[in-house]
Amino acid sequence: MDATTETLKPKQYKSSVKPVWCPGCGDFGVLNAITKAFSALALRPKDVALISGIGCSSRLPAYASAYGFHGVHGRALPLATGLAVGRPELTVVAVGGDGDGFSIGGNHFLHACRRNVNLAYVVMDNAVYGMTKGQASPTTEPDWCGSKLTPEGPGVEDFRPLEMALSAGAGYIARGFSGDPNGLARLIAEAMQYPGFAFVQVLSPCITFRPEQMGYKNRVSAGFEPTNDRRQAFLRLLDDDHFTTGVLYRSDGAGWQPPVAPQRSLDDIANAFRVENL
């Protein structure tokens, strides 16, 4: 690590592009937390790749000074998985929202957990489709009546990301709050260093379409303590109020690693190109 990299501050990981998020959006806190994590780990921008899908939160790669790829709706995880397998020396971080990740991207989420490839997935969960004007999302409460499309509430149970990640086999599972960028930065830094699939759900308020979420700061509490016992983690979730933060589960096992092709000697290579062998 060269001296220049070691002295990079969080703001130096931000690009010159100004975020277009609404004032007060929780995603600002997530951007700050991610850049704090990059700084804490002394990562070189050229060794980091941010992959996203579609949505307000998926704009984040444009606001960071690192490699980035803004993909299509729900497809951040297959893109990130392919990159992590093909370029294992990179720190790969997929980012997105609850609609992008748990609706059209829900199938990819389950299998990314199961495959346990070495990458981090940060989901900014505001329980609403913010970019398309406030429809209910997979994590919206069944009785939320804030959308004209569902004036009596969605009427179906909300998707529970931590339970699904634990069931599907993710090795690292945590929840943070965008209003606590330092605490969230620690979770994201741990996720990036975890040798497998690491999932961080971030409670990230949308004060434009869900102004009641401004009260999150009075409801969020630190309570999860890391365990490597899946049964214990499941039992904790039975009493979860959806506002407890911290590391829920961290497996001791290593994630899946791409096989390394055997190296061939120069003589073997030369022999393969002999006329009689072609």
What does this structure look like?
This protein has 9 helices and 8 strands. It has 278 residues and is of the alpha/beta class. The chain has one domain (3-141, 151-277): Thiamin diphosphate (ThDP)-binding fold, Pyr/PP domains (Rossmann fold, 3-Layer(aba) Sandwich), CATH 3.40.50. It has an 8-stranded mixed beta sheet with strand order 2-1-3-4-6-5-8-7, sandwiched between helices. The radius of gyration is 20 Å and the shape is globular.
Q: Which key terms come to mind for this protein?
A:
278 residues, alpha/beta, Rossmann fold, 9 helices, 8 strands, 17% strand
In short:
This protein has 278 residues and is an alpha/beta fold. It has helices at 3-6, 27-40, 76-86, 98-104, 106-115, 161-168, 181-193, 230-238, 266-272, and strands at 48-52, 67-70, 91-97, 119-125, 172-177, 197-203, 221-224, 244-250. It has an 8-stranded mixed sheet, with helices on both faces.
Report the helical percentage.
25-40%
| Largest sheet properties | 8 strands, mixed
The fraction of residues in strands falls at 15-25%
Class by helix and strand content? Answer: alpha/beta
Q: Figure out the total of helices.
A: 9
Order of helices and strands: HHEEHEHHEHEHEEHEH
- Mean pLDDT value: 90
Number of structurally distinct domains:
1
The CATH topology label is Rossmann fold
Strand order of the largest sheet: 2-1-3-4-6-5-8-7
Corresponding CATH superfamily: Thiamin diphosphate (ThDP)-binding fold, Pyr/PP domains
The parts where pLDDT drops under 50 for at least 5 residues are 1-5
Euclidean distance between termini CA atoms: 45 Å
Strand segment count: 8
For the record, what CATH class applies?
Answer: Alpha Beta
